[in-house]
Design a protein that fits this description.
This protein is mainly β and about 575 residues long. Among the domains are: about 90 residues, Immunoglobulin-like, CATH 2.60.40; about 90 residues, Immunoglobulin-like (Sandwich), CATH 2.60.40.10; about 120 residues, Methylamine Dehydrogenase, Chain H (7 Propeller), CATH 2.130.10. Helix content is about 5%, strand content about 50%. It has two helices and 50 strands. A hairpin with a 2-residue loop joins strand 8 and strand 9. The longest helix is centred in the N-terminal third of the chain and has 10 residues. It is elongated.
């Protein structure tokens, strides 16, 4: 149901963005990080998982290397690596670069090390990587280069390059050149322990206290003697809040709300803002923000149990794929606790990386459905996942094609699903496996953006250009029958039905307002009640389970408009606004 506000324009802006083609972690490496026990944010917000993935290559481990040193300027040689969990496709990384590797056994590898790899420097880190659907990277063992000197490092790019004040701790990825195993990242001149990835990337943990207030932080990298020195300085900006909110979700208890945003202004580092809801007034109170993943956080949803939340991060179409960030919800505070991430799952042969843009959870809480876009209409897909009831972790089950899709909604019965694309695609759901089966499509007017289903499961409403298309749902087959359109404001992008099934709300991004309708509970036909002003460029709406309050995200003002709902008429009364 989450809109992609002006997606085509967003894609165009991303493709026109001048951004260095830096070395980035592959999705395989990111999935490894997601399977590592712990919490936190790794390079562009990827979080560590407390749930190990089963059925993939084990993580390799190095016990010894022979030789373990060489003289700077020496000849090429063969390095022997002893350890465990090596596989035929294992790759040795020496000094930040992949080396020609020979598999000897599950406990031994050899690697050809060229003379250029030991021409300078004092330490070269040795690791083993097992590639596959869920790869593993070993511990690092240092190889000493005697008589060598460290180069002077250079920083080219920070990821992220900004952070909202009050956000939780995260890992900053520093990209550049001449990084070594002993490189230190300096934050405002203070040394921070860093994790060496390769000669072009080093990661450092940034604490919540570092970004508690707005301002800037100077970031440098230092290589110790012999040789070495300090790099150039790049600045990380600590902003007042997240920019361009795209989606809002309220938990089933009505106590908490979550907003997914494009992130810091002009940086596209996706953020999730967290709020508590005053049960009497409906007012939101900020409890902080997270930076969950690749570039733009496009959509957020909460599972029916209220235990887990999921964020679709659409990524950068030029250099990286998107992801789904997974969280457990603290039932007392509402704070999100990272439990891992999984990458977008486009079908084979996509044109460009996969970009998750919308997601929905099955009413049973057993399954999740994600729209993945690869910036090529023929490669839009719907990814199907099972949900671990204990951890909330998503298990990928496969994809079905979905056309140029915008939003997905699941029927309250859990038997059907609907996806807006050039039409509306209708699916049956296998209640045992969660698998989708296409049963047909129905025309939905011009540019359908968002779909909502009333709580009774009898009617569906689709936001299209200038109007809301109304449908009756066949209770046994799940098929839609059109009962016509009704006018909305300019550019409707999001539609929602209140929990009582009496009212429908359409967010109009062009006219900066919310259209309010009553529902004829017998026929499903809508009657226009009026419109209520929102902030500039509103993008989505969520309603509390009580039906008393509604919240609208405003992309143009980086805010959320808060409303009370008249129980008799559905009319909205503005309570106030709060920043994202």
């Amino acid at each position: 149901m989450i809109p992609k506000a002006s997606l085509s324009g967003f894609q165009a802006s991303l493709r026109g963005e001048v951004k260095p083609q830096i070395p980035v972690k592959t999705i395989a490496t990111l999935v490894l990080i997601a399977a590592t026990i712990g919490t936190g944010i790794y390079g562009c917000g990827y979080t560590a998982s407390t749930t190990p993935t089963i059925g993939y290559n084990p993580t390799p481990a190095i016990t010894t290397i022979m030789p373990n040193s060489a003289v700077a300027g020496g000849a090429a040689f063969t390095l022997t690596i002893n350890g465990t969990n090596f596989v035929a496709a294992s790759m040795v990384n020496f000094g930040g670069a992949a080396r020609t590797t020979t598999f000897v056994s599950a406990t031994q590898l050899t690697a050809a090390i060229p003379a250029a790899a030991i021409a300078s420097g004092v330490i070269a880190a040795v690791t083993v990587i097992n590639p596959a659907a869920n790869p593993g990277t070993s511990n690092a063992v240092n190889f000493t280069i005697t008589g060598g000197t460290n180069p002077v490092p250079t920083i080219n790019f920070l990821d992220p390059s900004c952070a909202p004040s009050g956000a939780q701790a995260f890992t900053l990825a520093v990209f550049g050149s001449n990084f070594v195993a002993g490189s230190v990242v300096r934050w405002n001149g203070n040394d921070r322990p860093a994790q060496f990835s390769n000669s072009g990337e080093i990661d450092v943990r940034i604490l919540a206290s570092d970004i508690a207030t707005t301002g800037t932080a100077a970031v440098t990298v230092f290589n110790a003697a012999p040789g070495g020195g300090s790099s150039n300085t790049l600045t990380l900006t600590i902003t007042a809040g997240s920019a361009h909110p795209q989606s809002i979700a309220v938990d089933p208890t009505g106590k908490f709300a979550y907003v997914a945003s494009e992130g810091c202004p002009d940086a596209f580092t996706g953020n999730v803002s967290m709020y508590t809801i005053d049960p009497t007034t409906g007012a939101l109170k900020s409890i902080g923000a997270l930076m969950p993943g690749d570039w733009v956080s496009r959509s957020v949803t909460v599972d029916p149990s209220g235990k887990f939340a999921y964020v679709a991060n659409s990524g950068n179409p030029d250099v990286s794929a998107g992801s789904i960030s997974m969280y457990a919800i603290n039932p007392t505070s509402g704070a999100l606790i990272s439990t891992g991430m999984t990458g977008g799952q486009c079908p084979a042969g996509p044109l460009g990386p996969c970009a998750p843009v919308s997601l929905a959870v099955h009413p049973s809480g057993k399954f999740a459905y994600v729209l993945d876009e690869s910036f090529a209409p023929t490669n839009i897909s719907i990814s199907m996942y099972t949900i671990n009831a204990a951890t909330g972790f998503l298990g990928f089950e496969g994809t079905v094609t979905g056309g140029l899709a915008n939003s997905v909604a699941v029927h309250p019965s859990g038997k059907f699903a609907y996806v807006t694309n050039p039409d509306v695609s209708m699916y049956t759901i296998n209640v045992t496996t969660g698998a989708l089966t296409l049963i047909g499509t129905i025309a939905a007017g011009l540019s359908p953006r968002s779909i909502a289903i009333d709580p009774s499961g009898k009617f569906a409403y689709v936001a299209i250009s200038g109007s809301i298309e109304m449908y009756i749902i066949d209770a046994s087959m799940g098929t839609l029958t059109s009962i016509g359109p009704i006018a909305a404001g300019t550019g409707p992008v999001s539609v929602a039905v209140d929990p009582t099934g009496k009212f429908v709300y359409a967010v109009n991004s062009g006219s900066n307002d919310v259209s309010v309708y009553t529902i004829n509970t017998s026929t499903g036909v809508l009657t226009f009640v009026g419109a209520r002003a929102a902030g500039p460029s509103p993008t989505s709406i969520a309603i509390t389970p009580s039906g008393k309050f509604a919240y609208v995200t405003n992309s143009g003002s980086n805010s959320v408009s808060m409303y009370s709902i008249d129980a008799a008429t559905g009319a909205l009364t503005l309570i106030g606004t709060i920043g994202t």
